[in-house]
Request: fold
Amino acid sequence: MKVIAFEEHYKIPAIAQANKDNPIEQIYEKWQKLGRFPGDPSQGVPPGIYDLDEKRIAAMDAAGIDVQILSHTVPGPEELEPSIAIELAKQSNNAAHATVTRYPDRFRGFATLPMRDPKAAVQELERTVHKMGFVGALINGHVNGRYLDDKFFWPVFECAENLNVPIYLHPNRPPQPVVSACYDGFNPIVSGFLALAGLVGISTWGFTPCG
Reply:
């Protein structure tokens, strides 16, 4: 029986740099300075997130994983202006495709999409599925505070339906008003951890609005 892991993230440095002011990247940087992520900083945060070659395969082998479905981690291009996000989404998908091409028995790809421009996102989804053989796309739970049930995003879901590929819905850090309402008043590092808790596997509290 093959073990296929669906939520297997990577990151490209260009997207990390473009998101350097994003709260998630800032929290990662704080955690790294506190020693939460020991190791060579050039390997990214968490360590190894930039690796799409032999070290990743070695980690897969050690964990008994046969195939990874690669997807770019949060924050991705969806938080950025479309003029930047469109090109960065292509770079992310090209990087994943290069790895799938090198190791076709070990990897598949979920597309990264510039969701603030649905037309461009549709074009990128079509490109990655038709030309690269991607098996779907991963979209984070909201796009710059705009949730995915907004009709603005429907063309992307209609495209996925027409292509007969799934959309993997991934959690995102809550919009800042939700973070402020739920988690203000603690040490900023504690607040940051609580807001991101779902990303590290602690229930879904990081994504549940107060009420």
